[in-house]
Amino acid sequence: MPQQSSQPGGDAHRVVMLVDDGSNPFELGVATELFGLRRPEIDRRWYDFTLCAAAPDTVMHAGLFTLTGVPGLHAAEGADTLVVPNRPDPHIPPAPAVVDVVQRAAARGARLVSFCTGTFTLAAAGVLDGRRATTHWRWTELFAARHPRVLLHPDVLFVDDGDVLTAAGSAAALDLGLHLIRRDHGAEIANTVSRRLVFAAHRDGGQRQFIPQPLPAVPDTSLAPLLDWARGRLHQPLSVTDLATHAAVSPATLHRRFHTELGTTPLAWLTSQRINLACRLLEAGEPRLDTVARASGLGTSANLRTQIRRHTGLTPSAYRGRFTTTPPPHQRQRTAGIGAPEPIEAEQV
Q: At what angle do helices 301-312 and 266-283 cross, to 10 degrees?
């Protein structure tokens, strides 16, 4: 059954997930968990979430169960974000009525999101032509042959192309969903949700879908202590060599362990952690870009601007203006992220 936001105030962002015969229950659960559950620990209006389906009774993947009482496709007409789940068999085209719903949503400017092989549905609707997208690695060759006008990125977790976002697989749907929450509500709120999920707060979309190397017969000691150590020193000029030295391994071994455990490189992980910290400082209302850059280890305000824009699509000042929940600087005294209280300075944009 659909779940509606019950918080008072203005209209919430409306997320509608389209379910179809054969849809994956995991991806349905991802959307419900991220966008449909009430979040009393978050003091702000959450999403208004509902489902829609082409038929009154919808049989989920492998006939595990049947959804009943789901609103019809008309429920998608007011969606601010429309989520399209996997196609159980990408060789079979989506129903014309489903394609029509996607096309109408695109025409009115709704945000479109696909999980796994749902990319095939978006492509069938023509909304991916000339745009970047990804899909599950098993189906990349079929997708590329069938939809040559789509700029397919076959080996990443998800792709954010502005108002159209695509996730590679079921687990990557969680990464993309948290990325959407980060875009809509900021890094701190996304971290709060990920903690409740007991899930990694941030895996960048550019990480690989799967790790081709087999796991070692005797697994290495977890990277967790090293990651905790590094997170506490992001303001320092840490290098991959510094990380390797602290872990008492060679840089080559450290790279292998990062690929095995995290699916990324030490430098990419370090950069993502610094950007996440910079976003949290901006959300806290810090007005000085040089302070944010220094406290997060991004070095200069110029590099900070580049990294924040690359990962959020916003300038630092625009990001702070959208997500800060603290009083304006003139109403409080700010404390530098890595030092004693400093006088307020105007931000250099």
A: 90
